[in-house]
User: Fold this.
Amino acid sequence: MNLAWLAAGIAVGFGVLGPGIGIGILTAKSSEAMGRNPDAAATIRTNMIIGAALAEGLGILSFVLGILLSGKTV
Assistant:
């Protein structure tokens, strides 16, 4: 029985869980920071976008690794 697809699904699921939570916390904290200090909103927004891009990169990496674990071409 080939369980490669199950392994791929679990890898993608766990791999996207962390970045999803991280982006949620990042957005909440940056919105709170912009509310406290509106003058620094541009700098906070820039840092938020960079952090979200890095976290999203981890999610994409887990997706690619899930495809590689499946052993099949798409």
Observations:
- The chain has two helices and no strands.
- Helices lie at 4-36, 41-70.
